[in-house]
Amino acid sequence: MVGIRHRLSTAGRVALTVLVLLLCVASLVGCSGGQASTSGKASADKATIGKTISARDWEVTLTGVSEKIKVVGQGDITYQAKGIYVIVPLKVKNVGSDMQLLAASDIALMDAQGNEFQPTQSAVQVAYGLPRGMEIIMDSPLGAGATRESIIIFDVPASAKGLQLALKGAQDRLDLGF
Q1: Where does 38-175 sit in CATH, by number?
Q2: How confident is the model at residue 54 (pLDDT cuts 50, 70, 90)?
Q3: Of the ranges 18-22, 38-42, 57-61, which one carries the lowest mean pLDDT score?
Q4: How many angstroms from the chain centroid is the CA of residue 36?
Q5: How many CB atoms within 10 Å of residue 39?
Q6: Is 34 left (phi over 0), alpha (psi -120 to 50) or beta?
Q7: Backbone angles phi, psi at 130, to 5 degrees
């Protein structure tokens, strides 16, 4: 009888150990495997949320946590990234004296290796923003002193790291937390 209890107790311990190991593996896969490195929200601790950079007639402020997604849009209007879409929430202010458009060539995303990525085409911006009722920054001019909060989207390689938003002529960059 003592031998049976000992075997059951040992078998129970083994089963419990296996169960704990399976839960650990499942937890690791869920947290860091597969898509976790290519999709999801940036680290708010590493992002420079609330920081403003400026150059010439523009001020750009990071207003929230950026995210990475593979597809934007809804229904029949969807666009798939070549790499991964990085969605950057920001506020743009025209500090100049005339109404003007922030040119797509004046804003870029830089990675840790020095690669530069330009914003996506207007259609991708609209496909993401329209269902959310957002104004699209790159598509309409801003009056003198006016601000607009919205998003800007970049298509970058899924492996890109150290992402920073750059404004042409600005001394600093905005860290996105990726």
Answers
A1: 2.60.40.1240
A2: very high
A3: 18-22
A4: 12
A5: 14
A6: left
A7: -60, -50
Within the chain, residue ranges assigned H as helices are 2-32, 122-129
- Distance (Å, whole) CA 89 – CA 142: 17
Q: Which residues pair with residue 74 across a beta bridge?
A: 77
Indicate the pTM of the whole model: 0.74
Residue type at position 176: L
Instruction: State how far the Cα of 22 lies from the Cα of 29, in Å rounded to an integer.
Output: 11
Pull the structure tokens for residue 131: 């269902």
pLDDT tens digits, one per residue of 138-163:
678 999 999 999 899 999 999 999 99
Residue 167 bridge partners (DSSP): 107
Q: What is the DSSP string of 99-113?
A: -B---GGGEEEE-TT
pLDDT in tens, 20-30: 443 333 333 33
Residue 92: band (very low, low, confident or very high) from pLDDT cuts 50, 70, 90:
very high
Strands in the chain per DSSP E: 40-41, 52-55, 58-62, 67-74, 77-94, 107-110, 116-117, 147-156, 164-167, 174-175
